[in-house]
């Protein structure tokens, strides 16, 4: 049904040199050379697009932002709507990575319009970006059909990367709404498709999805093994963001298993990684996991609740509905524990005071 995975974001001469599994340092070096050798605005646009994607994947946000804007300016000078669509897709993807979800939706919407009829793949990638952005925001009703449409298109054209993206999104929605068996089946299908297509990046992300669901089903050690397998791929390909999300997921798995001290260390590692690459969404999610872990190993309830208040504002700013639901549930748990402990202390104090009160009455 599917062919081998390819990377249409590497275009022109770069497309002949680079593939879906090229390391991002390699991509960046090739893009810099191509930019220096470019003889036309379109060639410069293509080189800048590749540089933007490499920098984004490496967590170099400022350089990625400059590159996609340069790509768009050159594509506009060339009068190429498809190339402009690719540049805005890159910018929208970067905005989503940085937690600027409303901006991501605007850029990706413009990318869809520009690429429509001009570049089928750019159009599909931009639609996939819109679907993923809506899913991250928790707007499942708005994007569920879009995921299914993208999956149908991917299957019709034999495009494994699009199939993995669409299936992963559908799987994540099932996972978040509690249908773990369905989510597991879809993530495992993603693993099979990515492996057969030699798509290492898609393989790593899909393994992370399987690990998440298996952990939620109580299979801690198999989940950790899957994450180790995915981590090796991330390190080989210089996938900085994917590696940070892998570490954050390892924290999730350890937290569910009640191994709170280990979870705290993994969340702290992920938080540092997200902070270094200026990724607010990942940083907020890792900070939430860290707050939960520290609370479970005895942190003061007042300090925990104050931290959750700060995190709630950040999650609302970004627009992460699923994470907000998690935060609210944990806040309720902390408040209930605090109330129970306070009641117990008051009861104990009353029992100790009663004999004294009688003696002096």
TrEMBL record:
* Protein name as annotated: Tetratricopeptide repeat protein
- Species this chain originates from: Streptomyces benahoarensis
User: SUPFAM superfamilies given for it?
Assistant: TPR-like
Gene3D superfamilies xref list = Tetratricopeptide repeat domain
Pfam family for this entry, one: TPR_12
């Amino acid at each position: 049904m599917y062919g081998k995975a390819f990377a249409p974001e590497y275009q022109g001469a770069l497309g002949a040199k680079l593939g879906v599994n090229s390391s991002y340092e390699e991509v960046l070096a090739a893009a810099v050379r191509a930019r220096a050798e470019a003889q036309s605005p379109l060639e410069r646009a293509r080189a800048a697009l590749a540089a933007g994607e490499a920098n984004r994947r490496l967590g170099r946000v400022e350089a990625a932002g400059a590159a996609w804007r340069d790509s768009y300016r050159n594509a506009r000078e060339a009068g190429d709507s498809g190339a402009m669509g690719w540049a805005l897709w890159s910018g929208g993807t970067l905005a989503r990575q940085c937690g600027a979800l409303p901006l991501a939706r605007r850029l990706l919407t413009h990318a869809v319009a520009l690429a429509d009829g001009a570049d089928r793949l750019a159009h599909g990638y931009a639609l996939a970006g819109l679907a993923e952005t809506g899913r991250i925001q928790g707007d499942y009703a708005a994007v569920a059909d879009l995921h299914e449409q993208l999956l149908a298109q991917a299957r019709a054209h034999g495009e494994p990367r699009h199939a993995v993206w669409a299936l992963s999104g559908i799987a994540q929605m099932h996972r978040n709404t509690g249908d773990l068996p369905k989510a597991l089946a879809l993530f495992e299908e993603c693993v099979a498709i990515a492996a057969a297509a030699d798509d290492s990046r898609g393989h790593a992300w899909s393994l992370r999805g399987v690990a998440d669901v298996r952990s939620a089903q109580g299979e801690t050690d198999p989940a950790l093994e899957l994450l180790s397998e995915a981590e090796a791929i991330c390190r080989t390909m210089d996938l900085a963001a994917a590696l940070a999300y892998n570490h954050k997921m390892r924290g999730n798995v350890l937290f569910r298993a009640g191994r709170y001290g280990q979870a705290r260390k993994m969340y702290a590692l992920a938080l540092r990684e997200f902070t270094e690459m200026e990724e607010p969404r990942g940083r907020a999610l890792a900070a939430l996991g860290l707050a939960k872990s520290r609370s479970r190993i005895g942190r003061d309830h007042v300090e925990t609740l104050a931290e959750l208040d700060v995190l709630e504002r950040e999650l609302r700013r970004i627009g992460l509905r699923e994470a907000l639901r998690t935060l609210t549930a944990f806040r309720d748990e902390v408040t209930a524990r605090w109330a129970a402990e306070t009641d117990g202390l008051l009861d104990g104090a009353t029992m100790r005071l009663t004999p004294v009160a009688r003696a002096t009455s």
